[in-house]
Amino acid sequence: MAAVNLNGARHRLVSDINVTPLVDVMLVLLIIFMVTAPLLQQGLPVNLPQAAAPAVKRTKSDVILTIRNDQKVFVGDDKKAIPIDALGDELTKLYAAKEQKDLFLKADTDLRYGTVVQVMSIAKKAGVERIGMLTQPELKTK
């Protein structure tokens, strides 16, 4: 198929796909995802203890339970504290439909050991099968 311009010259139509706009859009999306990915860390900030333990492999569907120094308990990124006496019911509802019943616990360094054990006991009664403890890596000193 040929097109004729005003001068009478014949030109062929180009049927190739122009990939330049596609590459531009993909690069912009890549930059956006690179900037926002570190901001998607789940959980609330607490002062975690340091330990020389290997990193735990987590997925996006993992549940993180955070216990702050003031003994307030939070599930996931929820900013609303859950009273310890209502934690069992909340976890039972959360894990009722889950196939993988894993829980990751973030407890503040200055928190009493008894509080952590109490929360772990409540989680086990609510149907949690495995509990992982999240820590900060140890600082290397010379």
Task: Give your account of this protein's structure.
With 142 residues, this protein is of the alpha/beta class. The protein folds into 2 domains: 2-39, no CATH class; 50-137, Nucleotidyltransferase, domain 5. Helix content is 30%, strand content 20%. The chain is built from 3 helices and 8 strands. It has helices at residues 20-36, 84-95, 113-125; strands spanning 2-4, 10-12, 50-51, 63-67, 73-75, 102-107, 130-133, 136-137. The strands form 3 sheets. A 4-stranded mixed sheet has the order 5-4-6-7, with helices on one face. Strand 6 (102-107), helix 3 (113-125) and strand 7 (130-133) form a beta-alpha-beta unit. Helix 2 (84-95) packs parallel to helix 3 (113-125). The radius of gyration is 27 Å and the shape is elongated. The N and C termini lie far apart (76 Å).
Briefly, what is this?
By secondary structure, this protein is of the alpha/beta class.
Indicate the topology.
Blueprint: E1 2-4, E2 10-12, H1 20-36, E3 50-51, E4 63-67, E5 73-75, H2 84-95, E6 102-107, H3 113-125, E7 130-133, E8 136-137
Parallel strand pairs: 3-8, 4-6, 6-7
Antiparallel strand pairs: 1-2, 4-5
Helix pairs in contact: 2-3
- Determine the number of helices (DSSP H or I, runs of at least 4 residues): 3
Global mean pLDDT: 78
CATH architecture of the largest domain: 2-Layer Sandwich
Structural class by secondary-structure content:
alpha/beta
Residue share in helix = 25-40%
CATH class of the largest domain: Alpha Beta
Number of strands: 8
Contiguous low-pLDDT stretches (5 residues minimum) are none
Q: Total domains, how many?
A: 2
What best-fitting shape do the alpha-carbon axes yield?
Answer: elongated
What is the end-to-end distance?
76 Å
Rg over CA atoms: 27 Å
* CATH fold node name of the largest domain: Nucleotidyltransferase, domain 5
Please state roughly what percent of the residues sit in beta strands, choosing from under 5%, 5-15%, 15-25%, 25-35%, 35-45% or over 45%: 15-25%
SSE pattern, N- to C-terminal:
EEHEEEHEHEE
Largest sheet: 4 strands, mixed
> What spatial order of strands do you see in the largest sheet?
5-4-6-7
